[in-house]
Here is the input.
Amino acid sequence: MGARVLAWAVLSVLLVAVGVPFYWMVTTSLKTSAQIQSLTPYYYARPVTLGNYVELLRGTGFPRWIRNSTAVALGASLVTVVVSCLAGYSLARIRYPGRRLLATTVLIVYLVPPTLLFIPLYSILNGLGLANTLWALLVVYPTFTVPFCTWLLIGFFRSIPPDLEDAAMVDGASRVQAFHRVVLPLAAPGVLAAGLFAFTLAWNEFLYALVLIHDTELKTIPVGLNDLMFGDIFLWGQLMAASVLTTVPVVVLYTYLQRYMVEGLTAGAVKG
Amino acid sequence: MLPPDAGIGYLFVLPLVVLVLLLIAYPLGSAVYLSLTEKYVGYPPRFVGLKNYVELTGDPVFRKVVWNSAVFTVASVTVKLVIGLLMALSLHKALFARRLVRGILLLPWVVPTVITALAWHWMFDALRGFINVSLETLGLISEPIAWLGQPATAMMAVVVVNIWRGFPFFGVSLLAGLQAIPADLYEAAAVDGASATQRFRHVTLPGLRPVILVTALISTIFTLNDFNIVYVMTRGGPGIATHILATYTYEVGFQALRWGRAVAVSMYLMPLVVVMIVVLARRLTRED
Amino acid sequence: MIAVTGRRLGLGALAVLLLLGAGAATPAQAQKPRLRVWLLRTYVPDANKALEASIAEWGRQKNVETSVEYFTFDDIETKYVAAIETDSLPDVGQLQTISPSRYHGMGRLMDVSDVVADVERTNGPLLDSALPAIRFGGRFYAVPFNYITDVLFVRTDVFRKAGVPYPKTWEEVREAARRIKAKGVMEYPLGQSWNRSADGYGVFQALLYSYGGGWADARGHYKSIMNDTWRAVVRWASEIYTKDRTVPPDAMAWTGFGNNEAFLGGKIAMTFNGPSIYYVLEKENRPLLPDTLMLVKPAGPAGQNHDVFLLSWGVFNGTKHAELARDLVRFLMSPDEARKYMYQSWGQMVPAFEKLRRDPYWQKNPSYKAVLEAPSHAHTPGYPGPLTPAAAEVVATNVLTDLCARVIVEGWDVERALEEADKRIRDIYATVPSR
Here is the structure.
């Protein structure tokens, strides 16, 4: 009982810490630019205006940016989850020569920031004929999401006791079936987490989207947000409106996706 | 003598290998090479060996940048880990509205970092920011605090923002880790007469350890390379008080146009982090 | 598992379709030549659109397909550096003050002296202050489009209330701030930050050149800064913080918009900035508009010397349509087209050529007159020498503003800070490549 009270105390503090800045973002998105800069009223919007949202959706490329970002992030996180699950399981569970070196290398290559990798990457993409297309991002984003998710999944897979798979294999299941029916269901929250992180990493990535793509039609959200900041004038209202519109859907999706995920993966286990 | 399922092992890991070799190894190799050259943007590179690294080591500005990065990273990751753990444990216990709370607590991670940094920049503003205005309204301060105008408080501010942005990563990962620990382990421990604290120490923590280690390592790498928060909030200022490796690399590469040196800046700490990775890899791929 | 797999595959297919749909924006095979133009996205959307319209019009007339891409003040270097290193520069691009010198040094810019000559014939002579930024070895490598002038913004009502006259020298600026504060009219009247933006390094140069200081000699070689002029300049820059306390306490951490917002929010009475503040006041008819005045920057012992922020057109060497590119620039610079842009610019587009400068647009009010006048007394980085890639790097790497920060934020004494800056400048000049 005491534990639950403590848990709620902690969560309340965190909710306030998250809520206050987010409240500020939402209120700002509902203020006119005169209100924002004159700072009156300060803690709330009066009058409340949806003008920023309207202007954002109609007067900027925002709908396009959303479409581009969604396509790229979905695609990249799908690729990432598949590659990382397989690789993560292999590195965590199966013994073969070279696995340690591979695991280490995968993460070491991750150390170099994109700022320095984009030039050689551009040449590769140019060679593949993908420069200035969204495919370029789809190909490039896994380079930083996959190492990240692979290691995350190694961690998740490692935290599941091996006896369960061993038991299944003793009962006649192959390694692949054990992976599919025993490990994946248990690791479902982890797989979803990894997918979510891959998605948000791709969703928020800026530099590659800025330098690998020229067409205004193909801008992603972070690059598009630049359009709302011209040197020393910032369209605060629209920026905050963009923030609300790009954040809330992702959170809503994640909140409700887990049930499907867990159910789906667990169903396999029950049948197996 | 290869173990029987080595074939599956290699097959599963093949896509990863292809990705790494094709798209990462070449750029990485090229980056290492560039760090050994005196490459100026728009001009061909000129090999100079370790000159960049030597010059950086003797440069007081760079040394301060490294120090700033160390402070920024260690402080952020440590606090994020603690908060994330608290968040995961609390969510695990709280059954009411768990999904909703978990969703809300995810917000800081999902908001585009640029906007987070801008919002917090405003909150910390001395004359108009939320923090000072509220403190003044409550009568707690009489003179505005120059949060971002003083080295110590500026560093604290960017650390706070990094923590705010990053704790959901730890929270969600650790929660997933908690949920992966099979319930019967707890039952068995309870049957054996273990108290709550003992169950935590002997079931929870060991079960969570791989996830803790991995998220801490990944977060460290991420935080070391973090650019947006400092760039948007202070540009590395006031002066160079919050200049970290990522912002310094950017300045040297894109403003001074000294590309070779910029790569050397970001590669400088690689040996240290490589050691960390090797140690961790050994731990995580160890036979039990 | 099936349910989830199915869902995942469904999502994946959706992603692919979206991508294909998005990627299908690639243009069909066209017989028309295609010209890529890079423009600065300025804070005046009307002006940006006017320029885009001009470019489109030219495309129609010449039967050329034009494609416009924007960069902002913040990512201009990122985009150009990326394009240089990946060989994907546009055909025509707008350049900021220090860029022609640097890119010419890399051999990326075409000689456009003929275009400049043509423009001078139709638009009148060029302002002297633009020359060092675009002319190298007697040939022109960029065509100056407009200045974005930095001026002194004052709150006339605050000055009236405090009984203080508008400052004409840098010393008077300090004095005015002190008096406004002493009279209790405003706590932090002066909003000047030595930060990593044009507000920082631009104003510092205006201050420096007005005192007769510089870090290079007339031939463009490094000259030591350990002298009394520099000491006086750094003292001015730091004492407004450390002694007068007339600057907001966190001003050193402002980024580009900090002073704008402080002025618009009524927190400061004086600041140096481009016309963007005035644009917001005019466009939205804010209450502060009648109380705001733009003045030319103050003078120092060596006269009234300002800094230059110049936007010019460059034609890049990799272009496959050199003649078309030059023609586009000629078109955009023609008095009619340029005038269209100017009228939409709300004071932002200060012409570099004589004819447009004499346009009645600029006689609108004293503020606009000040904006027009300022570039006549201005100097480019590296003054009194030419704008070399080394001078460009001194500005781009924040040596000047870091110098002030050392004294103000870290409490270094002026001498020590000057020594560090001196060494940095010396190293830059010793190692920067150039032709």
Notes: The radius of gyration of chain C is 24 Å. The longest helix of chain C spans residues 2-23. Chain C is about 45% helix and 10% strand.
